[in-house]
Amino acid sequence: MGQQRTILSIRKETRQMFKKLNKMKIGARLKKSFRQIILIFGILSALVVVIMLYTINNYGTILDNYAYPQGDIAMAMNESAEVRAASRGIVGYDSDSLIESMKEQHEQAVKSFEEYLEKIRPTMITKEGTACMDAIDKAWAEYKEVDAKVIEVGATTDTAKSLQAQRMMTDEAAPKYQALDDALQKLMALNISLGNAKRAQLRTVMIAALTIIIIVIAVSTIYSNSLSVAISKSIEKPLNELKDRFITFAEGDIDSPLPTVESEDEIKELVSGVSAMSDRIRVIIKDSGRMLNEMSEGNFAIDTECEEVYTGAFTDLLTGIRKMNEEIDTTVRGVDDASGQVLTGSTNLAEAAQSLAEGATDQAASVEEMQATINELTSGIKTTAEELGTAYDEAYKYAEIAEGSRGDMEVLVQAMSRINETSEKIGAIITQIEDIASQTNLLSLNASIEAARAGEAGKGFAVVADQIRNLAEQSAKSAVDSKALIEAAIHEVGDGNMYAEKASTSLREVVDGIQAIADSAKKIKEISIEQADSMEQVEATAERIAEVVQNNSAAAQETSATSEELTAQATTLSGMVSVFKLRQ
């Protein structure tokens, strides 16, 4: 339970520490965390050093006060035995030299024993040890006193005294020695007991210290791990969320919110910067999408509502949209102007063709009338050759009619020439229409490409561009067909001019002939047969003129129909262009 409470307390303190760390920059957070971990392991290292110093010191104390003194006590006990053995030798030997030698050993043993006692004395730091030393000192003093008496009596070669000294050793010295030996044994036992107790105490302290070190290491590990996990999560989690948001942002999701960051570090600043960037891109995309949608619906009189957000590289986007708007606006204006010009030219062409058709019809009627007149004239020449006087008057009459017909033929020739010039102008206009249709087709292709680049926002404009391209292709086809018809008409008109000039020449010859008839009325009779032949030739020529005039009338009607069709197509094109709202 105590460990659980400690762990819970550590976790609580750790959470509070995390809250404080989250308000710091990443660098400061990591530095402070590393400082804390270094401080913890520094304290742990200091604790280990203290425990090691304590252990070394206590082991030194044990060695100095318990282990080493045990050897000294043993040596003292050995020296006491040497003292006793030397005393026995002094009392037992009957040779003076041996007795003197044993005395020297005795003195040396006494000296060594006392030196060991003095060496042992400082190590007796407990009351029990001091008491034992006091008992040893007392027992040694008593034994030494008795031993001196024994040596004084027995250090001789006299047998009686030797026996007396031996009895003294047995009766007096032996109990004293036993008391000394018991005191030494008691000191040895006490020293061993105290040493074992001190060693057990040191072992307990070592176990407690190791336990504390293990607990500190565990707590430090838990704290360090929690700290590292928390710091890594505080950095990794928002970065992963931000990475996922960047992926959706790259896929076109600009409306979803960015991840919330609770820390007050560089990641929050990064999220704030990305949020501002996302807001700006959202505004730019909506504004550019609005402009493209307006243009796809035919409204080119539009502009951005938030020019201030188009900064940096986005300026190129706004410039591109504006340039595309201006190019398409200019193109549509050009198509509108061209359709207006085509409409005007086709209307004029239709009117001219209608006038030509009507004139050709009138000419055909005049030629038929002339043909009938020539027929009648031929019959009259054949049947009334004898009526020369009447023929003379009629010749002048018909000369005047022929002169008028010649004037009509000249007018017809001039009209055919004008039709030829008008047809050539119409051909030039058709060529311009083909160029305009080609340019419109090219512009619609460019518009389709730009619409494809714009994606979904450009689909509507792509449909309009396709319609413009189809209309341009239809206009180009119609222009080609019209050009072919007009070229055919020009060819036919050229033939008509040639035949009209021939007819005019023939009429001039007829007029000259009639005048000659008028002047040579008297000679008509002789040459009436020749005149009849000439009139038959004139009749054939009139028939050819009638055919030419009929062909001219048909060509004029066909040109009028083509012009009306071109007018209708120009009107349709103008109507389609009128749906666009152009810039002022």
Automatic annotation (TrEMBL):
PROSITE patterns: CHEMOTAXIS_TRANSDUC_2, HAMP. One of its GO terms (cellular component) is plasma membrane. One of its GO terms (molecular function) is transmembrane signaling receptor activity. The chain crosses the membrane at residues 37-56, 204-223. Keywords: Chemotaxis, Membrane, Transducer, Transmembrane, Transmembrane helix. Residues 338-567 form the Methyl-accepting transducer domain. Residues 233-286 form the HAMP domain. InterPro entries: HAMP_dom, HlyB_4HB_MCP, MCP_chemotaxis, MCPsignal_dom. Belongs to the methyl-accepting chemotaxis (MCP) protein family. This is Methyl-accepting transducer domain-containing protein. The lineage of its organism: Bacteria, Bacillati, Bacillota, Clostridia, Eubacteriales.
